[in-house]
Specification:
This protein is of the alpha+beta class and 112 residues long. 28% of the residues lie in helices and 21% in strands.
């Protein structure tokens, strides 16, 4: 089942709620450290552009969402391998929470 989108405000709140993940392991023993919990475009095409730009710039800035006007957003957990910063891993926040049995009530998009 495809995850449902968030509004920008909802996605921003989720990022703050999960900010404690920064610096922790993406997967136990993987050598991948979480660098960002980030608001990203919801649709796959724009999300792919967002991830491509992240891979080339290795950072997320205010400009990362430039050109994307929403209204649907997602939240991504993004990590790098400690020995190879080009080895980037990412997943949807709902997938991350589900696979780690994290209890969190994700908001519903207000107009769906």
């Amino acid at each position: 089942m495809r995850p449902k989108p968030f509004s920008f405000e909802q996605a921003s709140t989720i990022c703050k709620d999960f900010s404690h993940l920064l610096g922790t392991e993406y997967h136990t023993g993987s050598g991948v450290s979480i660098k960002h919990v980030a608001v990203a475009p919801f649709d796959e095409e724009n999300k792919d552009v967002f991830i491509y730009n992240y891979k080339t710039q290795k950072k997320i800035t205010k400009e990362s969402l430039l050109g994307y006007s929403g209204p649907f957003y997602d939240v991504l957990v993004i990590g790098h391998h400690q020995e190879d910063p080009n080895d980037i891993h990412h997943t949807h926040i709902r997938n991350y929470a589900k696979t780690r049995d994290v209890s969190y009530t994700f908001p519903e998009f207000p107009y769906l």
